[in-house]
Amino acid sequence: MPVVNRIAAYAEDMKTWRRHLHAHPEIEFDCHQTAAFVTARLRDFGVDEIHTGIATSGLVAIIEGRGPGGTIGLRADMDALPMPETSGVDHASTVAGAMHACGHDGHTTMLLGAARYLAETRNFSGRVALIFQPAEEGGGGAGVMVDEGIMERFAIDQVYALHNTPGVETGHFYATPGPIMAAVDEFHIDIQGRGGHGAYPHEAADPVVAALGIGQALQTIVSRNLDARGEAVISLTQIHAGSTDNVIPDTAYMNGTVRTFDAEVQALIIRRMQQIVDGHAAAYGVTAALRYERGYPATVNDADKVAFACDVAREISGAEAVRDDFGREMGAEDFAYMLEARPGAYLFLGQGDGPMVHNPNYDFNDAISPIGASFFARLVERAQPL
Predict the structure, then answer these.
(1) Distance of CA 244 to CAs 190, 195, 215, 248, Å?
(2) Would you say residue 178 has pLDDT above 70?
(3) Is the pTM of this model over 0.90?
(4) Cα gap 166→353, rounded to integer Å
(5) Spatial CB neighbours of 169, under 8 Å, sequence gap ≥ 6
(6) At what angle do helices 32-45 and 11-23 cross, to 10 degrees?
């Protein structure tokens, strides 16, 4: 079964919605105009309930089926990134310093397309909970919505989401059971030394040399403390120290990111980082403080749900266009919080060649909106048949 015919008929409307959203991006929890636009469309479609103000600007809409049953959750993120746009498209951002560079405008549009179809046809039992979420790019809006009780309040049994992927053939789906995206943490290291003249380093306690030693040692954690099959990334991305060539500074600052899939690996990295920071501080005669901040957890697909979702995807795009064992991504995603709360699946949908996400020249491919909307619609009809 290809794209649902009724949804294919919405293609131009979906393009119009998506390009409006692209031109009016909003950041983190401040997605009020986007939520108002979504609410207006949902009212036009005749959904049964709309609950706004969740996680500041998020909303959940309910569509009732034609028989008793459970509730399936479908999620779309609404927020943009705090970056300028250089794409040059006619519908480019009209908001300085904000851009839909990750395709959340397209994710919102795909869920709106599915909502329109499901509200018209209601060829399913139970209920659908349409989750429109702010603050995926920062702030963990999914976690806030979970903490505010959406799973219990709307009796959601299972939950699903899609993300567009440039560089993958248009309309191709991929996923994997278990962890599909990494936990993302960040670390900060503040080194306090004793400054002095660059010509007399023996009279100083040099934080720059300490920072170099710590940075090199951090890179041995993955290569020398973890099994080679234990996937993890430690990237030191910032070192700031000093102001001129002949002055040894008092302080240095280091910052970076850690990506893991396994809680035991994460704990080992934290322990080794602390040991390295403490040991090097003593060795170089400085003081150093590690601040480790846990971010989004790993995004873990339920094996049965991802198998089911990929089977639905094959209906839409064909068997050859779906991979259910693609492997893991080192990126992170706050849908992880929803998958911690309920079983479900997170899939990627290819949108063809073009700039990658988080690139100022990126634009969502409107051709995949009917594909994603059809996937969501058939997911509901098959998960909760009449």
Answers:
(1) 20, 12, 21, 8
(2) yes
(3) yes
(4) 6
(5) 321, 350, 352
(6) 160
Evaluate whether 328 touches 179 at the Cβ level (below 8 Å): yes
Q: Within its chain, how far is the Cα of 9 from the centroid?
A: 30
**Triad 28, 265, 210: Cα angle to 5°:** 80
d(CA 82, CA 94): 13
For the stretch 47-102, pLDDT in tens is: 999 999 999 999 999 999 999 999 999 999 999 999 999 999 999 999 999 999 99
Q: Which residue has the tokens 């560079």?
A: 101
Mean pLDDT, residues 291-319: 97
Q: What is the distance between the alpha carbons of residues 120 and 46, in angstroms, rounded to a whole number? A: 8
Distance CA 99, CA 84 (A): 6
Q: Which of 293, 284, 292 is nearest to 211 (CA)?
A: 284
Q: Could you report the per-residue pLDDT of 271-280, keeping only the tens digit for each?
A: 999 999 999 9
CA distance 40 to 20: 13
Burial 274-313 (b: 16+ CB within 10 A, else e): eebbeebbeebebbbebebeebbbbbbbbeebbebbbebb
Q: Output DSSP code: residue 319.
A: G
* Strand, helix or coil for residue 89: coil
71 by Cβ neighbours in 10 Å (0-12 / 13-18 / 19+) ranks as buried
Tell me the pLDDT band of 229, cut-offs 50, 70 and 90.
confident
Give, in order, the Cα–Cα distances in Å from 233 to each of 159, 183, 238, 271, 305. 28, 10, 15, 15, 28
User: Residue 364: what pLDDT?
Assistant: 98
Three-state secondary structure call for residue 286 = coil
The structural domains of the chain, ordered by start, are: 5-180+298-383 (3.40.630.10), 183-294 (3.30.70.360)
β-sheet with 322-323: strand ranges across: 49-54, 58-64, 127-133, 71-77, 158-165, 344-350, 173-174, 322-323
Task: Quote the CA–CA distance of 260 and 56 in Å, as a whole number.
Answer: 30
CA atoms within 13 A on the CB side of 224: 8
Instruction: Express each pLDDT in 20-51 by its tens digit.
Output: 999 999 999 999 999 999 999 999 999 999 99
DSSP code for 358: T
Residues comprising the chain, all counted: 386
